[in-house]
Amino acid sequence: SGYAGVWATENTREAIWDAMMRKEVYATTGSRMTVRFFGGWDFEPADARTRLPARAGYAKGVPMGGDLSKAPAGKAPTFLVAALKDHIGANLDRIQIIKGWLDDDGELHERVYDVAWSGDRRPGADGKLPSVGSTVDLATATWTNTIGAPELIAVWQDPDFDPESRAFYYCRVIEIPTPRWTAYDAVRFGVEPLPGTRMTMTERAYTSPIWYSP
Questions:
Q1: 3-state secondary structure of 211
Q2: Which whole-number Å values give the CA distances from 94 to 82, 131, 175, in the listed order?
Q3: How far is it, in rounded angstroms, from Cα 163 to Cα 70?
């Protein structure tokens, strides 16, 4: 089933509990992806062109689970996101940042932003990114990594930032489609799935939020 990832300073009981207390953790639906997520006010595109994103992440901002406040005049928060595929798993489709905020009436709103993706796709007129496609062969319950990317990294700035509104941001990483357990069972036992049975899935990871308070 799922996994939890903890960014601890060392592999000890104390350090792992400390990381959980500061919420520097993420979860996956089963894949062993590696995910980094930092928020701050001064991340630049150059920070995504590095093999050590955490160096810039900790130097310029806060990690997943952290807090931002007191927005500098004229600035919107920037985020550094990086993901590496499971070494024996599927390639990555995209990285998304989900923003939630409270309006003046106290109502919660959410919006999903695609911030990094594989291939040469471009968002359509509706702002939505086209599907990455699928390489799943249901007859054999297999797939190939001929689409997607082994890693994705980007710097993103909130284009709709309101410094007076409370908000949160978390990162979601999505893999390319792979066979679901129903597909493996159908091949193993030589049975025909019931109509409407879902046969593929997209594993994903979710980070703890980064919170903004005016």
A1: strand
A2: 11, 10, 7
A3: 8
Question: Which tokens go with 100?
Answer: 């939630």
**What whole-number distance in Å separates Cα of residue 71 and Cα of residue 162?**
10
What pTM, to 2 d.p., does this model score?
0.94
Residue 62 binned pLDDT confidence (cut-offs 50, 70, 90): very high
58 in Cβ contact with 37 (< 8 Å): no
Reported as a single tens digit per residue, the pLDDT across 112-142 is: 999 999 999 999 988 899 999 999 999 999 9
Residue 108 Cα distances to 40, 54, 128, 177, 204, angstroms? 23, 31, 22, 31, 24
Looking at residue 114, what is its pLDDT? 97
> Cα–Cα distance between 147 and 176 in angstroms, integer?
8
Residues 6+ apart with CB under 8 A from 83: 33, 34, 35, 36, 92, 95, 151, 152, 153, 173, 205
How are beta strands 210-213 and 67-69 bridged, if at all?
parallel
**What is the predicted pLDDT for the residue at 174?**
98
DSSP helix/strand/coil, 186: helix
Q: Report DSSP state, residue 209.
A: P
Task: Give the other-Cβ count within 10 Å of 130's Cβ.
Answer: 11
Q: Where are the beta strands (DSSP E) in 72-203?
A: 78-84, 92-102, 108-117, 151-157, 167-175, 178-179, 200-201
